[in-house]
Design the sequence.
């Protein structure tokens, strides 16, 4: 009993720390982008991508930042990478096809 619940707690905390990492990079990147510092946002998101296991949403936001500064090739690459990691995200297909981002949740 005790060993099992101890392992469960340990597993959950490692998942939470990864989530915290992705959320941290996402929030910071989003904030920097909204403050018109796209270069800093790109750097933040790329740092998160290189240091985390789960990063689909970081690639997704990176694509949004790139398209907003008129870099469609980089945007498409980032969105395609996000789609590879999260194939059920239908919005990504739309972004790639239409070369635009849909971000009602940001405002």
Sequence:
């Amino acid at each position: 009993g005790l060993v099992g619940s101890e392992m469960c707690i340990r597993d959950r905390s490692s998942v939470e720390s990864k989530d915290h990492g992705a959320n941290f990079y996402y929030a910071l990147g989003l904030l920097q982008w909204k403050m018109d510092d796209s270069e800093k946002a790109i750097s933040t998101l790329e740092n998160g991508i290189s240091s985390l296991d789960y990063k689909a949403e970081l690639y997704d936001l990176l694509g949004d930042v790139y398209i907003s500064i008129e870099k469609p090739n980089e945007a498409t690459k980032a969105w395609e990478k996000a789609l590879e990691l999260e194939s059920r995200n239908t919005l990504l297909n739309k972004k790639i096809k239409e070369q635009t981002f849909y971000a009602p949740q940001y405002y």
About this structure: DSSP finds five helices and no strands in the chain. Confidence is low (pLDDT under 50) at residues 1-19. The helical segments are 2-34, 38-51, 56-68, 72-85, 90-98.
